Amino acid sequence: MEFWSTLAEVEFELIDIEAEAKERNEPVDRPCVRYVAAALEHLVPLLTETLTRQDEDADPDDDDFNISMAASTCLVNVSATVEDLLVPVITPFIQQNIQNQENWRLREAATMAF
């Protein structure tokens, strides 16, 4: 999880640097390879499954970082990096689980993914 989150942050910065270089008509020193975008179809199911691992005994006022929070942070970083490419990959999970009355974990994971 930490690997993909860090990679998404780095790629986000590289994409931003590329855009600035193109605006100034300068060459790009270190182009972004876009590994995160290439892995989306494999990465998103892992993240959505991990989002469902909420700790029901956790105190909401506590600052403990758990696996579900790590998946949420990673998904935020991924979405910032790949932008609209994430929508068709994450939408089926959200639509299938956002109103799930039988499993609160799936409903909450879908809400976080939204």
Structure explained in plain terms:
The chain has 114 residues and is an all-alpha fold. The chain is built from five helices and no strands. Helix 1 packs parallel to helix 3, helix 2 runs antiparallel to helix 3 and helix 4 runs antiparallel to helix 5. The longest helix is centred in the N-terminal third of the chain and has 22 residues. The radius of gyration is 16 Å and the shape is elongated. The model has no long low-confidence stretch (mean pLDDT 90).
Write the layout of secondary structure elements.
Layout: H1 2-23, H2 35-51, H3 67-82, H4 87-97, H5 104-113
Helix pairs in contact: 1-3, 2-3, 4-5
Order of helices and strands: HHHHH
Radius of gyration: 16 Å
Helix content: 55-70%
**Uncertain stretches of 5 or more adjacent residues:** none
Proportion of beta-strand residues: under 5%
Q: So what's the overall shape? A: elongated
Taking all residues together, what is the mean pLDDT? 90
Distance between the termini: 19 Å
What does the main sheet amount to? none
- Helix segment count? 5
**Total strands:** 0
Which structural class do you get from the secondary structure elements?
mainly alpha
Could you give a short description of this structure?
With 114 residues, this protein is mainly α. The protein has five helices and no strands. Helices cover 67% and strands 0% of the residues.
Brief descriptors of the model:
114 residues, mainly alpha, single chain
